[in-house]
């Protein structure tokens, strides 16, 4: 009698994103994949490739409970869903920033708690939390987003220790730059702009280009290549507790052991903050 396929549930699997790329890579690796998204209509490509798709809003207790009720077993939970938030700290709308934390932090904890009973039944259970190299990087105008990822990274590390007695492994997926539709969605849907009265008003054009990440479109490791490498890592008998994959991941990892602030000039230039500083000081 053949062994049943291992199963994986992935959140945030809209076509063109990292979740969708992971779903395809797991499917190719022989897993039974439950690809989920708030809007199933955005997973047509996955559905057409034979991957099972489910509607799931990770910020809805009822939606989470409905999906839990549809599964009889689960081996791997990948908390991938999330959103961006780019704005100087002093200009951040706190109510909107809290919504980001609700999605990027608290919703993942809700998912872990809800699916834990199924994972406890698996002999090789694994929880994967998609964070970001931003969790380890001081990037101008991304403090709210990066701090939400840093929070999830630390939660992952503590959870790794807490669940060891139960045989459940926890992985922090510290992803670098990956070529997806993320920037396109940011520019078309969020289109962040500085509020009136911002202290950055003299350099508004430069800052708003940074907020929209103009010039970074099309950059990064191809999503398919990134996802296949991640799935290979996760299939190891003892996957590393932190997986660094994607463009700039290695550089960011190195920066964590170098003297504090050594990369300040580099990241300021990338964000255009060096030019902003020149304008402000005039």
Structure report:
The chain has 282 residues and is of the alpha/beta class. The chain has a single domain, classed as Rossmann fold (3-Layer(aba) Sandwich). It contains 11 helices and 9 strands. The strands form 2 sheets. Strands 3-2-1-4-5-6-9 form a 7-stranded parallel beta sheet, sandwiched between helices. It has a two-stranded parallel sheet with strand order 7-8. Helix 1 links the parallel strand 1 (7-10) and strand 2. It is globular. It starts with 6 loop residues before the first strand and ends with a helix. The mean pLDDT is 95.
Class based on secondary structure composition and strand pairing = alpha/beta
What fraction of residues sit in β-strands?
A: 5-15%
Strand order of the largest sheet: 3-2-1-4-5-6-9
Uncertain runs with pLDDT below 50, 5 residues or more?
none
Largest sheet properties: 7 strands, parallel
Number of strands: 9
Please outline what is shown here:
The chain has 11 helices and 9 strands.
Topology diagram in text:
Elements: E1 7-10, H1 18-28, E2 32-37, H2 44-48, E3 52-55, H3 61-70, E4 76-79, H4 94-120, E5 126-130, H5 143-162, E6 169-175, E7 178-179, H6 182-190, H7 204-211, E8 221-222, H8 223-234, E9 242-245, H9 249-255, H10 264-271, H11 273-280
Keywords, separated by commas or semicolons:
about 280 residues; Rossmann fold; 7-stranded parallel β-sheet; two-stranded parallel ribbon; 9 strands; about 45% helix
């Amino acid at each position: 009698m053949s062994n049943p396929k291992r199963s994986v549930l992935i959140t945030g699997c809209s076509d063109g994103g990292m979740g969708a790329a992971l779903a395809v890579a797991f499917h190719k690796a022989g897993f039974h994949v439950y690809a989920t998204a708030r809007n199933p209509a955005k997973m047509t490509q996955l559905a057409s490739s034979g991957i099972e798709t489910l509607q799931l809003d990770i910020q809805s207790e009822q939606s989470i409970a409905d999906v839990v009720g549809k599964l009889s077993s689960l081996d791997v939970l990948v908390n991938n869903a999330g959103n961006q938030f780019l704005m100087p700290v002093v200009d951040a709308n706190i109510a909107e920033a809290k919504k980001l934390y609700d999605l990027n932090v608290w919703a993942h904890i809700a998912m872990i708690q809800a699916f834990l009973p199924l994972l406890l039944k698996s002999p090789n259970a694994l929880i994967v939390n998609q964070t970001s190299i931003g969790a380890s990087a001081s990037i101008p105008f991304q403090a709210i987003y990066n701090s939400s990822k840093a929070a999830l990274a630390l939660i992952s590390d503590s959870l790794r220790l807490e669940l060891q007695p139960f045989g459940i492994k926890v992985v922090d997926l510290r992803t670098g730059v990956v070529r997806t539709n993320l920037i396109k969605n940011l520019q078309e849907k969020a289109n962040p702009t500085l509020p009136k009265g911002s202290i950055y008003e003299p350099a508004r054009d430069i800052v708003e280009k940074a907020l929209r990440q103009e010039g970074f479109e099309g950059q990064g490791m191809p999503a398919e290549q990134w996802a296949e490498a991640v799935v290979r890592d996760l299939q190891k008998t003892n996957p590393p507790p932190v997986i660094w994959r994607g463009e700039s991941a290695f550089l960011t990892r190195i920066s964590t052991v170098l003297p504090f602030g050594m990369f300040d000039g580099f990241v300021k230039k990338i964000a255009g903050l060096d030019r902003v500083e020149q304008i402000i000081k005039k």
